[in-house]
Specification:
This protein is mainly beta. The protein has two helices and 21 strands.
Length: 342
Amino acid sequence: MRNHKTMIAVFVFAIWGFSFCSTGFAQENKDFIPGEDSGFYYTIKKGDTLWDLSEKFYNSEWDWPGLWEMNDEIKNPHWIYPGKKIQIFLKEKTALKPKIVEVQKIKKEIIPVKIETSFSYSEMDHIGFLKKTANPSLGNIIKEQDGNLMMSTNDIIYINPSGKGTLIPGKIYQIFSTSKVEEKINDQKFTGIKHLIKATVKILEHKVTYVTAVITKAYRTVYKDDLIMEYYKRDSILTVQKAPDPIEARIICSEDNNIMINDYRIAFINTGNATVKPGQIYTILRKNETKDYSLWKPKSNESIQLENLESGKLIVLHTEDITSTVMILSSKYAIHPDDMVN
């Protein structure tokens, strides 16, 4: 069966009109667990077939072998069960080896239905966020037990409580750091406090003047004076909304202060929970203008505003009062702070 000629298929995520490359979310030869793995998912409903889902998602019923290939847990393409989540994040320009099966199918009229797609991001619980003021700190790290300057998973640390809350033995908290953000966004000054989540920590014991704890999982290097806060719980599975109401927002910066923000980077936009919600997908636009260097105006500094260029797509992951945390899903051009989002 595997000796048949390889079929080359280009899968386009037709709902939003953008494609994804093979790096990033796509993984092979394993069952996907929403909430632990990252990608787009669809929950099978009664009456669904791979043939019909291929038509809904890719505008072609003939792409169903690729949909089957991406979901190894489907043993027989004739049988898919309601309630089961399948992965629909397919790789761009990927050579797939289709499973050969005889399928007798009578083509029927496709009736448009609402497709509820979910987006799962395994790192949702430690993405950064941006607020007007800093979150209260329950304490700060004094030192690591052995005097290490850089701390990581399983290190024992000493914490100086702030007195603004209780550090309960056995409870999990988060280690974070803050930094001030100042950017010129849409010709206006934006200021805020970026929160970078570095690790989870479990409180061990209260001493007279300090608290002992162990770093249970580090996502970034932890240092002396890093702060402690309550665990920032977020839902790792989002219901995707493909066509939300238009917004007028701008990208503020990326989580890691990248000059150019690439695919799958975390970034922040200057609109919050009153306007957007997690799971919504928006278009990123780049201003497109040129100087007027016409022959009759050789020294003109006037610029001509051209049609804005669509440079990518993003999905909202988390919202605060004045900002939202987003992920760049795809990019045609380099994405920078102050690029438009709508």
